[in-house]
Amino acid sequence: MMICRFVPSTQYSVPGTGPVRKVAPMLISFLLLISWTVTPALAWNATGHKIVASIAFRQLTAAEQAKIAAALKRHPRFTEDFAEEMPEDVRSGGEAVQQEWIFQQAAVWPDLIRPPGADAKIAFHRSQWHYVNLPLFLDETSRRELAGKLTLNTALDPPADVTTATEPLNVVQAIRFGRRKCADHTTDPQTRGLLLAWLFHDVGDLHQPLHGAALVSRRLFPEGDRGGNSIKLTQSFNLHSLWDQFPGPAADLKSCRDKAIAFVNSPEFSAVGRSAAAILDEKEWLLESHALAREVTYSPGILAAAAKAEAAGGNLEPLEMKEEYLKAGGRIAERRLVEAGYRLGSVLKQIAAE
């Protein structure tokens, strides 16, 4: 089991901000300078995932785009969840437009099959494939008492007998399983299409900091806070949903495509993306998200409130996040979407080359 504490980590820089280190007053002051407009949003699992898909789309040649789209058309639910859901303006927009829409739809498909819903859809739902709760201990006492006793799945490699019906995989295991099967010529086309959709989605998920961490403490969160889902906020349902919302509200093809184009055309963000694309080890993606969760997402204010509730043996009341925190979160979300998009593009290139 991988065990982590609140300790300084490797540097992780955000465009325009310099290296992100262990949160300190100097960093908090600096984050006030980050310019990002806070906007209410749908979720990373809609707008953000589609932006990631459209960034990846632009990393491929026309032939590679067509090859990946053709593989997705063999998805076992392509007719019901893709073809029948395609908007009329996309149908009449030409092949390239249709292919990009299929990319975006693949990226959100694993969220479209969550319960409640038709049994035929829910049969494909894999709740644990979206995250890995790599622990962050609130204090040394929690670490001493709970390290080695947690039941969280923090393994990196999938078991040898894994199948598409295996539920207990975490997001890293699911990505590694999907990459292996999609690159294997003996994989049947329907399985390949299914796992391609999961790859589109899970590469994005792993770049959301709270899909790679869970706060652990003796009293409040003895099995972890479920990636921030157990920390209620006044601005959103909880900490996790707040971070899901940072990419923005518009989830239509054009809005997400335009955001992706803006990122790709930005010298700052395209440099970030190219650098990220050179790192295709899922473990490194996880450690990046985990570091961001430790250093920024679980802010000093959140940790102080959790420590106070922990000492008092009471509940953690809903917290209000300040403007500087929201600005920092928005800027980090932008970077993580770009990194995920370029990395997904590189993974798809490898699969298209097989």
**Architecture in CATH?**
Orthogonal Bundle
Strand portion, in percent? under 5%
Shape: globular
Please give the CATH class.
Mainly Alpha
User: What strand line-up does the widest sheet have?
Assistant: 1-2
Based on secondary structure, the structural category is: mainly alpha
Count of domain modules: 1
CATH superfamily membership: P1 Nuclease
DSSP strand count:
4
The share of residues in helices is: 40-55%
> H/E order of the elements?
EEHHHHHHHEHHHEHHHHHH
Poorly predicted regions are 1-43
Query: How many helix segments?
Result: 16
CATH fold descriptor? P1 Nuclease
Can you give keywords for this protein?
mainly alpha; P1 Nuclease; two-stranded parallel sheet; 53% helix; globular
Polypeptide structure, described:
- The chain is mainly alpha-helical and 354 residues long.
- The protein has a single domain, classed as P1 Nuclease (Orthogonal Bundle).
- It is built from 16 helices and four strands.
- The chain has helices at residues 25-31, 44-57, 62-72, 78-81, 88-91, 95-112, 119-122, 140-146, 171-182, 189-206, 239-244, 253-265, 267-277, 282-297, 300-312, 323-353, and strands spanning 12-14, 18-20, 135-137, 214-216.
- Helix 2 crosses helix 10 and helix 6 crosses helix 10 (189-206).
